[in-house]
Amino acid sequence: MRSGSRTGTPLRQRFRFRPLSTASLAIVWVILWGSVSPLVIVSGILLGYLIGVFFPLPPMHWQGRLRPVGIAILISRLIFDLTKSSLRVMQLVLARKVNLNAGVVRVDLLTDDDLYQVQVAEMISLVPGTVVIEVVRNPRRLYLHVIDLIADDAVEQVQEMSYGVESRVVRAFGSRQQIEAFDAARAAVGTRPEPLEDPELEVEET
């Protein structure tokens, strides 16, 4: 049986039109161009299809389900965080003496799922003042570049913020078993003695 190059994907399946992934890539293309002209839309669809043909992604097995209440909470909290962080960044920019107090903080995620890890990383990066600079798959880990680390418990605050995002993502898209597993892992983290003794968890100033 013929296969598609190194991936071993059957040619018929490889050239199959995938509406969801193609539409997603086309939307990104339109956003990048900042135009909804017919040429941009058609070229985005074509580009999305060709990317799926020549750079096929591995299948993602999602075991969760959409939870409308969780999604509403996720979006509303994101808007709140965006507003709060934007005001804080504006305050830092307008200050006479600029001292960003920036550093790199490591956060170990509690869920073992590619989709949730990507969602958490994207939502954290959307908030001004915090950027994911590295994603580690095994173990599930994020490295965040964060500004305004002035409090004594600044690292713990960043970690709690990340766990909050992860919790809302799981409650918006996860199964009941995944939510229960996250809650159990979160409770276990809360009972660890002196969680910041690991030197890798300390802030690395930049």
Give your account of this protein's structure:
The protein is of the alpha+beta class and 206 residues long. The protein folds into two domains: 5-54, no CATH class; 68-205, no CATH class. 54% of the residues lie in helices and 10% in strands. It contains seven helices and four strands. The chain has helices at residues 11-14, 19-33, 38-54, 68-94, 114-126, 154-173, 176-190, and strands at residues 103-108, 130-136, 141-146, 204-205. It has a four-stranded antiparallel sheet, with helices on one face. β2 (130-136) and β3 form a beta hairpin. α2 crosses α3 (38-54), α4 (68-94) packs antiparallel against α6 and α6 packs antiparallel against α7. The longest helix has 27 residues, at 68-94. This is Na+/H+ antiporter subunit E. It is a multi-pass membrane protein. GO terms for molecular function: monoatomic cation transmembrane transporter activity. Belongs to the CPA3 antiporters (TC 2.A.63) subunit E family. Keywords: Cell membrane, Membrane, Transmembrane, Transmembrane helix.
List keywords for this structure.
four-stranded antiparallel sheet; globular; disordered C terminus; 206 residues; 2 domains; alpha+beta; disordered N terminus; 4 strands; 54% helix
Order of helices and strands: HHHHEHEEHHE
* Spatial order of the strands forming the largest sheet: 2-3-1-4
* Alpha-beta classification: alpha+beta
Provide the helix percentage.
40-55%
Q: Rg from C-alpha positions?
A: 20 Å
Overall form: globular
The overall strand count is 4
In percent terms, what proportion of residues is strand? Answer: 5-15%
Poorly predicted parts: 1-8, 193-206
Number of helices: 7
Largest sheet: 4 strands, antiparallel
**What's the domain count?**
2
Rounded average pLDDT: 82
**Straight-line N-to-C gap:** 54 Å
Main location: membrane
Membrane topology: Multi-pass membrane protein
Pfam family, one: MNHE
GO molecular function, one term: monoatomic cation transmembrane transporter activity
